[in-house]
Amino acid sequence: MPDLSRVREILKSARGTRPAPGPIAPPGARVDLDAVAARLGGELGENEAGRYILVRSRYPGERRYGRGSIADAGADLTDGEAFRVLGGLARTPPDDGRALFIDLETTGLSGGAGTVAFLIGVGFFGGGDFHLNQYVLPSLGAERAVLAAVDRLVRSSSALVTFNGKSFDVPVMETRWTMGRMPLPWGELAHVDLLHPARRLWRRRNCRLTALEVDVLGVRRDGDVPGSEIPARYIGYLRRGDPMPLCPVLEHNRLDLVSLAVLTARACRLIAEGPQGDAGAAQQVALGVLYERAGRGSDAAACYRAAAEGPGADGVRAEAMQWLALRSRRAHQHDLAATWWERVLALPAVPDRIGREAAEALAIHHEYRARDLIRASTFARRALQNERDPRRRDAVQHRLARLDRKRRRGGLGLRMDGGAGFEPRDARPDGSRTGWGARRPV
């Protein structure tokens, strides 16, 4: 058995002699900004708050990006109403403004007061081309200069477009502006977070921007730096002063911005084409939801009908019929709603959740409106078949027991209130409700 000193010697040799990482330069440290800017392919900018690095680039309109050109994307984004529907905005952005596409690269991926945006990428269309301004933080002491430069650009815009910006980019920006004691520049500015409509429109398991690039745009990146490595690259620059590891980060940010802009344009085109376009059944349902939330009910109904009557998968068609049934119910067209629910149950493969809702709605309809207790019992039993939630099973069994009592008495379960908009709900003996009203689909 080796002695303790020998064990210590072995462990020391195994650790090697790698030097400890150097300290991060303090905010007031001198940095050769001219050299850093030149190596990053940028220029020095200056304002009342100090100096910063600005890297400009341009994607000409005739350049192809995936399956379309940059100019085509810019043209699709001129439809202000489609842009409003996409973002669920209360009003259409002004025609004389421009949308800014924003993406941050930060010193951390979790947000919080300690997360600094060392690169703020901003893209916008102009003259048929796509322009990019990338504001780089050359040292920690230059943050106010970068924020002031971005502030001016944001105030001249009509809308912001981000990808997961409501959860990450905008909160980080709000924190940095607040810590810099600067008023927020966006105020009432419209903000479209593409992540949420993208999940509806393209229904991918992986809805990361790079995954949508491949599936929707047909773009594949070669040699792209992983996002998880980006914070360490900037920390390494602060320690060693070598900006070259940041060059792939700038390219990563550029590609994020171009893909964000082109994907936003593709979504706006789908919205502009509407039910007359060549979107598949799943996209028609997604378009219907977007129209519905934007107050365009007739367009929403047309999209749902196109999906319900089309050749899509049973699950997608069932979802479209579900929306049509709920629209009919809200319009007090109860017989039409029942027809759509029956069509849902007639499909060979119906998702359990939608099938249960259809059976429940039909049980209610036949008990209180059609006054057919036998059919009401049939649909209630069908709702019970795949119901696993104990509380909801109890509600169905409560309904079946009541229907059985009515049938034994020979009653029809007549409504006594006479109100056209009455929505029946089951009351338990303790006065609580079973909550059998039809739910909105998710």
Description:
This protein has 442 residues and is of the alpha+beta class. The protein has 17 helices and nine strands. It has helices spanning 4-15, 33-39, 70-76, 80-87, 143-155, 169-179, 195-202, 209-217, 230-240, 247-273, 281-293, 297-309, 314-330, 334-346, 352-368, 373-385, 390-409; strands at 43-47, 50-59, 64-65, 68-69, 99-106, 117-126, 129-136, 159-162, 190-193. The strands form two sheets. Strands 1-2-7-6-5-8-9 form a seven-stranded mixed beta sheet, with helices on both faces. A two-stranded antiparallel sheet has the order 3-4. Strand 8 (159-162), helix 6 (169-179) and strand 9 (190-193) form a beta-alpha-beta unit. Helix 11 packs antiparallel against helix 12.
Short description:
Helix 14 packs across helix 15 (352-368). By secondary structure, this protein is of the alpha+beta class.
Which helices and strands, and how do they pair?
Elements lengths: L3 H12 L17 H7 L3 E5 L2 E10 L4 E2 L2 E2 H7 L3 H8 L11 E8 L10 E10 L2 E8 L6 H13 L3 E4 L6 H11 L10 E4 L1 H8 L6 H9 L12 H11 L6 H27 L7 H13 L3 H13 L4 H17 L3 H13 L5 H17 L4 H13 L4 H20 L33
Parallel strand pairs: 5-8, 8-9
Antiparallel strand pairs: 1-2, 2-7, 3-4, 5-6, 6-7
Helix pairs in contact: 3-10, 4-10, 7-11, 8-10, 11-12, 12-13, 13-14, 14-15, 15-16, 16-17
Features:
alpha+beta; Nucleotidyltransferase, domain 5; Serine Threonine Protein Phosphatase 5, Tetratricopeptide repeat; 50% helix; 442 residues
| Rg from Cα | 29 Å
General form: elongated
Mean pLDDT: 87
Strand order of the largest sheet: 1-2-7-6-5-8-9
Instruction: Count helical runs.
Output: 17
Secondary-structure content class: alpha+beta
DSSP strand tally: 9
In the CATH scheme, the class of the largest domain would be: Alpha Beta
Strand-residue proportion = 5-15%
CATH architecture of the largest domain: 2-Layer Sandwich
Q: Which fold name fills CATH's third level, the topology of the largest domain?
A: Nucleotidyltransferase, domain 5
The assembly state of the depicted protein chains is: single chain
CATH level-4 homologous superfamily of the largest domain: Ribonuclease H-like superfamily/Ribonuclease H
Total domain modules: 2
The stretches of 5 or more residues where confidence is low (pLDDT under 50) are 13-20, 413-440
